[in-house]
Amino acid sequence: MENYDVIIIGSGAGGGTLAYRLAASGKKILILERGGYIPREKENWSSKAVNTEARYQAKETWRDRNGKPLHPHTNYCVGGNTKFYGAALFRLRERDFRELRHHGGVSPAWPISYQDLAPYYDEAEALYHVHGNRGEDPSDPPGAAYPHPAVSHEPRLQHLSEDFERQGLRPFHTPLGIMVNERNRRASACIRCNTCDGYPCMVNAKSDAQVCAVDRAIESPNVTLLTGVKVERLETSASGREITRVVAIREGRTETYSADIVAVSCGAINSAALLLRSANGRHPDGLANGSGAVGRHYMGHTNSVLMAVSKCPNPTVFQKTLSVNDFYFGEPGFDYPMGHISFVGKLDGETLKGGAPPLTPGFTLDLMASHSLDFWLTSEDLPDPDNRVTLDRDGNIVLSYRANNEEGHKRLIARLKNLLNRQRSCPVHGHECHQGLFARNLYLAERIPLAGVAHQNGTIRFGADPRASALDVNCRAHEVDNLYVVDASFFPSSAAVNPALTIMANALRVGSHLMERMN
Ligand SMILES: Cc1cc2nc3c(=O)[nH]c(=O)nc-3n(C[C@H](O)[C@H](O)[C@H](O)COP(=O)(O)OP(=O)(O)OC[C@H]3O[C@@H](n4cnc5c(N)ncnc54)[C@H](O)[C@@H]3O)c2cc1C
Ligand code: SF4
């Protein structure tokens, strides 16, 4: 069996970025990825293929805490879930790293500060081509200027932004990882389409982990990527202090691999499941789980989509450009965090079909979609030890979750509706709309269900205390010297902005630590 310096399991935001960092070390790196490359094909941009037929979604059944089947909205492929993400690439706020009192409890402090991660955020923003306007977002921490200018609003969103400003808010351009060149459209890889958030990019212009990290890493002769390799368990030496074998299934056959260092990056749910499946005599409750933390504190954000359907059309094609963080830490009269407001990709009739009553005619859904502003609201859920990943008797994933800390989210939805009711004009009807653009209009707010595990995090938390965390400050297992976990699992709290940039920045941080360790 050939021995590698590092094996990385999973090639998403965490694993892919780590591979990119370690490629320059010259060390022998092996990436094991259970999925394959997403084919470039017309279906990439078909809402029927992607949303209705779930063409690229994992074909797996998990169970919830009541034993009910759960079909997770997750993707196994090179680049992981970043192939499908909306590429909104936010830094956590400085206060997110500290203990923060919420209406529903306490969000714990991280063992590192914003300043510790800041240089890696700078690097991650450069690697993932983030476009934005530093300083526009009132809660954004200090940092280097964004490497690329903000992505412009289309007229409907520009108008909404100005209306929010008139109401005293500080709306801002969402930091986005797309390779768009608005100064020279002919040289732009990105064409600003309506099938970005939730879809793979057919022209490879989205800054996902495959395009920006993995494909670049494997240009180095010392980096090997094997696809279609599902890691089943990790085996240790008799002392239990180090991993000696990585056991995987490839095309129906069992294969084993070995390395001096193993970095697990399967996503927060699958990484926890892998460690639990790797229980042995020295680690009876799961690998590196003396603290009992592995699998616990699952968080995924409290997320809602709010469709504000108005009499005014919304012809926007690329809708992800606008965000509002004025209520991130609360509002007068409610001194607790509420969360973040932004947009999903433009919804269409086909996508709405999935959630509509069976007799709703298609043209109604199309009409609704052509008149809706489709907001995405995110609030922080708190790390409850009983919200957790476990395995059933056959080793399948069970995801137990009870929502918590919901008051801020409810207020955020109410606040947004209130703001929209007070809009003074619209670009189509002008000031004839001053009676209240949305006042007699329709709001459809839908909470993202448990199967929507897009923002999964927190199941293998890092910390200074081995009794309360599974990983140390460098994301190395307290109990296994050569085991690292480098994906969304390490979050001790979920904050309320999208997680990917923090996962990427942390992977660069851990990668730097590994380079030092290996020298
Ligand atoms: C539709 C959608 C939209 C999103 N939009 C945004 C956004 O706008 N902004 C943002 O910040 N975040 C967004 N996210 C979330 C973001 O994509 C994730 O936070 C991020 O990809 C998680 O990184 P990760 O490394 O933890 O896991 P992943 O990126 O999921 O990578 C895990 C990898 O491990 C592989 N794997 C799993 N198990 C095994 C195994 N046993 N053996 C081998 N390989 C394995 C998987 O195939 C996958 O490639 C979105 C997600 C989705 C689904
Ligand atoms: S908006 Fe740009 S980056 Fe996104 S899918 Fe379309 S072309 Fe690709």
Describe, in plain words, how this protein is organized in 3D:
By secondary structure, the protein is an alpha/beta fold. It is built from 10 helices and 19 strands. The strands form 5 sheets. Strands 1, 2, 8, 9, 10, 11 and 19 form a 7-stranded mixed β-sheet that branches. Strands 4-3-17-16 form a 4-stranded mixed β-sheet. A hairpin with a 5-residue loop joins strand 16 and strand 17 (397-400). The protein starts with a strand and ends with a helix. The site of iron/sulfur cluster has 12 residues, from loops. Iron/sulfur cluster (SF4) binds next to loops.
Give structural attributes:
alpha/beta, binds flavin-adenine dinucleotide, Cholesterol Oxidase, domain 2, binds iron/sulfur cluster, 519 residues, 7-stranded mixed sheet, 4-stranded mixed sheet, single chain, 10 helices
Set down the secondary structure blueprint.
Blueprint (H helix, E strand, L loop, with lengths): L2 E7 L3 H11 L5 E5 L13 H6 L9 E3 L4 E2 L29 E3 L2 E3 L6 H14 L27 H12 L5 E2 L35 H9 L5 E5 L1 E8 L6 E8 L2 E12 L3 H10 L24 E8 L12 E2 L16 E4 L5 H5 L8 H9 L1 E8 L8 E4 L5 E4 L6 H15 L20 E6 L35 E3 L14 H19 L1
Parallel strand pairs: 1-2, 1-11, 2-8, 3-17, 11-19
Antiparallel strand pairs: 3-4, 5-6, 7-13, 9-10, 10-11, 12-15, 12-18, 14-15, 16-17
The protein binds flavin-adenine dinucleotide and iron/sulfur cluster (SF4).
